[in-house]
Design brief:
The protein is of the alpha+beta class. The chain has four domains: 5-9 and 56-152, Immunoglobulin-like; 11-51; 176-225, no CATH class; 228-415, Rossmann fold (3-Layer(aba) Sandwich). It has helices at residues 14-31, 35-51, 203-208, 258-275, 298-309, 339-350, 371-393, 406-415, and strands at residues 5-6, 10-11, 60-67, 71-79, 84-93, 99-104, 111-116, 121-134, 139-152, 175-191, 217-225, 228-233, 279-284, 291-295, 329-334, 354-359, 397-400. Strands 14-13-12-15-16-17 form a six-stranded mixed sheet, sandwiched between helices. A five-stranded antiparallel sheet has the order 2-9-8-5-6. Strand 12, helix 4 (258-275) and strand 13 form a beta-alpha-beta unit. It is elongated and about 140 Å long. The mean pLDDT is 80. Pfam families: DUF58. This is DUF58 domain-containing protein. It comes from Amnibacterium endophyticum. The chain crosses the membrane at residues 12-32.
């Protein structure tokens, strides 16, 4: 919960004016001997005395949030001193226009608002500002705006097919390598040779062998190895499905955004490789973005999920190519709206890496778009289509993340891989 903000009391002057009017009426009534006129000033004098009484202390405003499965609960607390009559609050959710409510001092001590979960990642959920009123409206204390922020974790998705690099590492892992080793997959039977382990001797095959008694037969197995996977996220763009909102970028109106697709995509890819026993690294393509060094295990998965969840859009930021391990499989998560990221994918592919272009551009919505928006969007999509076709021609696997057949595309790409 954010720290309380405090302000001073400000007087509107109504109580002083009311007191002056009461003195005048009392003076006129006493001066002319009119008791009935003097009595009219007594209620005004009592009201002025109440109005001039200043509450002891200052009010404070604090907001906080907690994230649920289907909603973000924002809690607003107003601590008001004795003597406060009303609390006037104006609040706007997701940067939308504010709504004003007037409540009593007791009701304002703790209020909750349930807001829908619109996007993942760090975001401003609610902005609250207002004032407290005391002394019959004569005393007002303005409160500085308080902002409630939340970090919403992306939905957990799965990838059932893994694209492996052209060459696996020498470390033992969960994938069958095309070389002899201590794996679990049977390869063939061969005569015993120096360097073979005694426990690999197949005594039944030796007894059935037509060779001389001195020849021993061993069972040879395929080795296991791990893959080096790197996930690179292009966080420069966070465009929504509503193309009419690309310029304004209002959270409540832009629909599903590209980062809403990129965050679960990166987390799901990392989880699939880590569950298979591989090593995964994560890099934000922007110069100021966060990263996670290559590693394996459950702790590495939680680290990558935390880094991905807190990734924010950095429009106009410069990109920096990360250092990749030898013979890695690179998942480049981007909207591919410019040439820079496509050129980087071509560069990695020419260096011998296996590259998967994960397309996270949302399906467009033309609602509210005028002719200029439609024409610009069409030209942009034509340029992007040519860019993705160029990636396919050089051997980059392009996978639209919103495509229902994305696992089929990944499975086809894995079947077409070269020798490892």
């Amino acid at each position: 919960m954010s720290a309380p903000t405090q302000q001073r009391w400000h007087r509107r002057g109504g109580g002083a004016a009311l007191g002056m009017l009461a003195i005048v009426i009392l003076g006129v009534g006493l001066g002319f001997g009119r008791a009935d006129v003097a009595l009219l000033g007594l209620p005004l004098a009592a009201t002025a005395a109440i109005a001039l009484r200043r509450p002891v202390g200052t009010a404070s405003l604090a907001v906080g949030t907690r994230v649920g499965d289907d909603a973000v609960v924002a809690e607003v607390r107003v601590a008001a001193p004795a003597g406060v009559d009303l609390v006037v609050l104006s609040s706007g959710a997701y940067e939308e226009p504010s709504t004003t409510v007037v409540v009593g001092a007791r009701q304002a001590r703790s209020m909750e608002a349930r807001l829908p979960v619109l996007h993942s990642g760090p975001q401003e959920v609610l902005r609250v500002h207002g004032r407290v009123v005391a002394a019959g409206g004569d005393l007002v204390q303005h409160l500085e705006p308080a902002v409630a922020r939340a970090v919403v974790a992306p939905a957990r998705e799965r990838v059932t097919s893994l694209v492996l690099p052209h060459r696996l590492t020498n470390r033992p892992g969960g994938h069958a390598a095309r070389r002899l080793g201590d794996g679990l997959d049977f390869r063939d039977l061969a005569p015993f040779a120096p360097g073979d382990r005694l426990r690999r001797i197949d005594w039944r095959a030796t007894a059935r062998s037509p060779r001389s008694d001195s020849d021993l037969i061993v069972r040879r197995m395929d080795a296991t190895a791990e893959a080096a996977a790197v996930i690179v996220l292009d966080s420069r763009d966070d465009v929504g499905a509503a193309i009419a909102e690309w310029a304004s970028d209002r959270p409540a109106r832009k629909g599903t955004s590209s980062l809403d697709l990129a965050r679960p995509a990166a987390a799901a890819i990392a989880a699939s490789y880590l569950e298979a026993g591989d090593r995964v690294a994560f890099h934000d393509l922007t110069r100021t973005g966060a990263s996670a060094r290559s590693g394996g295990g459950r702790r590495k998965l939680e680290q990558i999920r935390a880094v991905v969840t807190r990734t924010t859009a950095r429009p106009g930021a410069s990109i920096t190519a990360p250092v990749l391990p030898a013979a890695a499989v690179v998942h480049l998560v981007s909207t591919f709206l410019d040439e820079d990221v496509a050129d980087l994918a071509v560069l990695w592919r020419s260096a011998g890496h296996r590259v998967v272009a994960v397309d996270v551009l949302p399906a467009p919505s033309l609602e509210g778009a005028d002719d200029a928006h439609r024409l610009a969007h069409r030209v942009l999509l034509l340029e992007r289509a040519d860019r993705l076709d160029r990636l396919r021609r050089v051997g980059v696997t392009v996978v639209p993340w919103q495509d229902a057949d994305r696992d089929v595309l990944l499975r086809q790409a894995e079947r077409a891989r070269g020798p490892r």
